[in-house]
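Each lists sequence, tokenised fold; shown next:
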Amino acid sequence: MTEPIRTAPNTPDKPKAPRWRRRLFRSPLAVAGFLFIGVFLLVATFAPFISPYSPLEQNLRGINVPPMRVEFRGPQGQPGLWVREVTRSPLGQLEAGQELYPIRFFVRGGQPWVWWGGLLQSDLRLIGVDGPIKFHLLGSDEQGRDILSRLAHGAWISLSIGLIVVSIGLFIGVPMGLVSGYFGGTLDLIVQRVVDVMLSFPGILLAIVLVATLGTGLTNVMIAVGIAAIPVYARLVRGSVLSLRDREFVEASRALGNHNRRIMLKHILPNALPPIIVQSSLQMAVAILFAAGLGFLGLGARPPEPEWGLMLARGREYLATAPHVATFPGLAIMFVALGFNLLGDALRDALDPRALR
């Protein structure tokens, strides 16, 4: 008698990630975008911990000091990270000290910092130097302020600008486009003419006009750039709604007696989310660039706020003698904008319906 063949018990298959997600994480563009944005978010979140000093702390003996040269051998040849003190004399000459001082990680001391509205407060910092010198890893600006500290705190300002601008565009532009595209008729005509008027101005020019009307300042910059983003979202959502409102699942929902509001929010808006998500990622980059441009023109943040555009504008005056003052803010703006643009392009390719077939 033959022994019955034993079969392995049926085990449920592991749920696979959606195809668009697999395509996204396999894209080199997405990986690069996530890397740039991840570093940006970490720096913005832990700015006081990363900053060696307060972004407003001045060092008049270290005005326009270039980035410190890090050496990997100490005075007796011992391994580690070592730096020399660099100062600027009253005559403008750079003077490098002879003694080497070790760089330490997770150091305590200096001015205590407070973060997240007082939820976090400490004097612990990521990096510092063991010695009686000022540690300017990326150099200092025209008032002796540490550029690394100002860049770290400026990342939080740029992140806040991007989030608020995108929020304004979403909460005003998306409902405008949704209602306009769904109902059509006279309402659509009125809304789209308003959008056309706003789109007739280049985005940066519209933001400049609004800032000039509202007044300079960081809050007004956020509002102005957010208003400039509204017509982009309104036109984008309207186009998506026009392609969805006559689909079979929408007609079926109408036949069941569902209210227009339920149809728009439950059936049309979720299907219009992919282009909105892509646009939001791209709009973050546009918002940071616009805010930096307004700061560069003197219409944005006011001194001594560590906003990247303002830092770039102040550093422009010292390109011949201290190019690092403008170089590092410019690189920060470039890499953050590049990260959001790369992520937006990767999301667009991953969410493309033709690629998901």
Q: What stands out?
A: The chain has a mean pLDDT of 87. The domain at 152-350 is CATH 1.10.3720.10 (MetI-like fold).
